[in-house]
Amino acid sequence: MNSTRSGVFVLACAAVAAIVFAGARAAGNDYVFFAGYTVLQFVVLATAWNILGGYTGYVNFGTAAFFALGAYSTVFFHKFDPLPIPVLVVIGAAVSGLVGLGMGYLTLRLRGAFFSIATLALAVVLQTLVVNWNYVGGARGAYVIRPAEIAELSLPYIQYLFLIMLALAVMAVATARIVEHSKLGYGFATIRDDELAAEASGVPTLKLKLIATTLSGALMGMAGAPFPYFIGYLQPSSAFALEYAVNAIAMPMIGGTTSWVGPLVGALLLGTLQQITTVTISSAVNLLIVGMLLVGFVIIAPNGLIGLWRRVFPKR
Amino acid sequence: MSYDLLLNAVMAGLLLGGFYAAVTVGVSISFGILDIVNIAHPAFIILGSYIAYAFNARFGLDPIAVSIIALPAFYALGAAIYQVYYLSFEKRGQDSLRGLAFFFGILFITEVALVLGFGVDYRYVQAGYIETSWHVGIVDLPLRMLVPCLMSLLMLAALQLFLTCTFTGRAIMAVAQDQLALQLMAADPIRIKRIAFAISIATASMAGAFLIVIQPVEPSIGRDYIGRVFAICVLGGLGSLPGTLIGAMLLGIAESFTATFYGPSWAPAVSFGLLLLTLAFRPAGLMGR
Amino acid sequence: MAAQLLEVERLCKRFGGFVALDEINLAVTAGERVGLIGPNGSGKSTLVNCLCGTLVNEAGTVRFEGRDLAGLAAHQRTRLGMARSFQLPRPFASMTVGDNLKVPLLYAVNARRRPALTEAEIGARCEELLTLVGLADRARRFPRDLTQVDMRKLELARAMATEPRLLIADEAMAGLSNSEVNDIVALLIRLNERGITVILIEHIMRAVMNFSQRLVVLVSGKKIADGRPDEVIRDADVERAYLGQ
Fold first, then answer.
1. pLDDT of chain C along its 245 residues, tens only?
2. Which chains are within 8 Å of B by 3+ CB pairs?
3. E-assigned strands of C38-180?
């Protein structure tokens, strides 16, 4: 509703991003870029999930499906006719957004539970389709060779990927905040609070839910688009990994679902924690911890860390 | 298309359907009757499979026998989980978002714990009848499919009897409709619901044994079943056990035909397609309950 | 002859084998105060839900200002000028009392107004409505902090915020004390004097009799009486229906 404040916010985010990038380069260690890319990817996924799950209350269990759609669109074009990453990001967004819209159209008129179940099933089905599609590598996987550097910006490629994910994170967080404070945000909140009363108050609930699903799906697809270049060798099992679904839910739930701050905090904290655990203990134990944190927070602190903060420091 | 192939595909579908009914009946109770979206149900089934595997590998016990012995443990587990669910969510009137996240977390934790405990390799059981196959005319009846199917039908029949003929069973059917009436009859709705949920988890013990008799198991298989289970529930009409059986048979035949004529790697997609079709064309009773 | 504000013709609603509404006919003129009474389970709330689009009727037509409402979703009917309050208040729990009223202004009123209300105008309207129902000093509170009667006032205020021409108040007074009931009746009469047609569904006979210019009685899904309140309550069928309970 207030475009100057939104503009200021975007600029502030861009400034923070610039500082982060400069800091990463100063560290002089490539690992920072690899780990940072993963954490930023979670920022995008968690924020995207929250636009639908946190704001409207409709739970998407198939984050991996939308993420993988973005990744496999890239693989498809890499084999067909390699395109610059920014273009691939747009394509990934379009593909995932459309699938989100389609699935929403089929299932959002029913109870929220059926939508959630459909998202779970979607992930399984898409994985089945990809496994059977040899052009993108099928079960064997596909190699996507990462160039050594990006000539136009004279940056090592991993730094270029990091920069892209940083930009996507800024975009995601800014979108979430703008939506939250807009008329759309009010509409979403009414759907979450009481859909029947929302309809009676004139809110076109189906249309808004479709907007949320499409927007959320598109952002997830955007996060997936650069992934093949990051990982170099893409297998269905890694693109569709359950950890994406769990993290996309755990991070906003732990951070707090009612505002854009929650997923950001959750992603930064949990993402960093996971980097540490995976390296020091094991990736399986790491996932176990994430799962237990999710269940723990859902039972004990349903409003997440932000909720706890607000209880200690109430607003005004 | 040969008659032989067709008949065997149908038979395989029916046997598979019988098994799917056992897998689904737990969710028919928890979702269909209690309105609890327990998407973690497949995880309990896999848990059942691994328990059957562990005792089979260690002591050579028949897996289905193990699952029957394990029934009380699963029942207790179900009761405990319902208690947590009730205190954390139903009582507080929390939105369904948290309930779903809760079960999803449990699904996830169970899968990862199994990976940590047993690794990602496929596990299978040894039992006398697994290799055997009966032949009736041109139809093959592999015992590893037939035995679970028959046991599953027995289990369903027992449950249906329980639900329609005993006081507790009828109270369970009633609790979905009218909690107040139940209270007036001096039955505690919470206790009734807890019993029902515990029963639904107990069925997972046996379904898990059936699963590992039919095919080797690894921790992530549970996810394939989520779509199947809810597709069958929706297809068969929520909360109806005979409906569950019919839905399961239909899905079993559909998957069997797909596997026979298009290849087994397409099977998981069948249930989703069926689910979407059902949701699109039979929404009655699924709208805003 | 001018079209009636609301015309209901042969409305039927079934739940499986159970007939909830059986060929309901009802006509409401603009400016009227109509009371709708009937025993529990007679179909009053089902009727409201069918009129407002929350439920879909199997047969019959509903016309609002001459326009057939078939196929229109609930939010579209609200935008046309039909508002309802819920039997059990359903506030938007995550927003303040004031913000609760912003939603209908943003989504119902602004959907049909050109030019749309500005933020300042919306704020002013919210204040106006809150003052009208007596909640002005609680604008910054959250619904969970409100008393029962305040919640019901909020419920009515939210319905009012959609700027309806017809307001259907579904048991707005259940569980309230005598003076609270009088408050709500007075509020509804004030609203009617502003030109809003009101259909009041209630069990509290005193309130209904004080309020209604016309009384409709529903029993087991059928309309058994429709006329002046003092005549209707003396009707033999109505007596039987209530005594027979």
1. 456 899 999 999 988 778 889 999 999 999 999 999 988 888 898 999 999 998 888 899 999 998 999 989 999 999 999 999 998 899 999 999 999 999 999 999 988 887 888 889 999 999 999 998 888 898 999 998 998 888 988 999 999 999 999 999 998 888 788 888 888 898 899 889 989 999 999 888 889 988 999 999 998 889 988 999 888 888 877 777 765 54
2. A
3. 59-64, 67-68, 82-85, 166-170
Residue for token pair 């807890």: B194
Secondary structure (DSSP) of C203-232: S-HHHHHHH-SEEEEEETTEEEEEE-HHHH
Phi/psi class of residue C220: alpha, beta or left (left: φ > 0; alpha: ψ in -120 to 50)?
left
φ, ψ (nearest 5 deg) of residue C175: 80, 10
The whole-model pTM stands at: 0.88
User: In C65-129, where do the E strands start and end?
Assistant: 67-68, 82-85
Instruction: Give the list of residues 6+ apart from residue A100 with CB closer than 8 angstroms, or none.
Output: A66, A213, A214, A216, A217, A218
pLDDT of B93 reads 58
CATH of C6-243, one of 3.50.50.60, 3.40.50.720, 3.40.50.300, 3.40.190.290: 3.40.50.300
Residues of chain A with pLDDT under 50: none
Cβ separation of A298 and B102 shorter than 8 Å?
Answer: yes
Q: Determine the Cα–Cα distance for residues A272 and A275; give it in Å rounded to an integer.
A: 5
Instruction: Tell whether A302 is within 8 A of chain C (Cβ).
Output: no
Confidence grade of residue B288 (pLDDT, cut at 50, 70, 90) = very low
Give CA–CA dist B92/B115, Å, rounded. 34
> pLDDT digits over B143-152, tens only?
888 999 999 9
Residue A150 lies in a domain: yes
Domain locations along chain C: 6-243
- Give the model's pLDDT for residue B289: 30
Is the link from the previous residue into C115 a cis peptide, with omega within 30 of 0?
yes
The b/e string for A87-98 (b: 16+ C-beta within 10 A; e otherwise) is ebbebbbebbbe
Instruction: List the domain range (segments joined by +) for residue A128.
Output: 3-240
* Residue A276 located in a structural domain: no
Q: Report CB contact under 8 Å: B104, A112.
A: no
> What is the total count of domains within chain A?
1
Which residues in chain C have Cβ-Cβ distances shorter than 8 Å to A1?
A: 119
- Does A190 touch chain C if contact means CB atoms closer than 8 Å? yes
- For B90, which DSSP code? I
Q: Which residue of C has its CA nearest to A257?
A: C94
Query: What is the helix (H) or strand (E) element at residue B228, kind and residue range?
Result: helix B222-236
